[in-house]
Amino acid sequence: MLIRSDDTFYEIKSKNTNHLWIIKKNLSSNHLIHLYHKHSVDMQYYHKQKSVNTVRFAIDMIKSHDDFVMKTKIL
Predict the structure, then answer these.
(1) What contacts 49, CB < 8 A, 6 or more positions away?
(2) Has residue 29 got a pLDDT over 80?
């Protein structure tokens, strides 16, 4: 779910885990996209999860993380 966005970032919330993510463009870096993550709205800060080359790869990483979290909760 999209929470907010502008020309440089998207802030989204996973429907599967309720984790929050920021996908941020950074044109001054070798990696064009920085991915930030936090586990809940109550957490004050995001932590940097990864730097990637495309938004598509960032979304794939979020999906992979969701899969991991959901499998871990089941066990």
Answers:
(1) 21, 35, 36, 37, 61, 65
(2) no
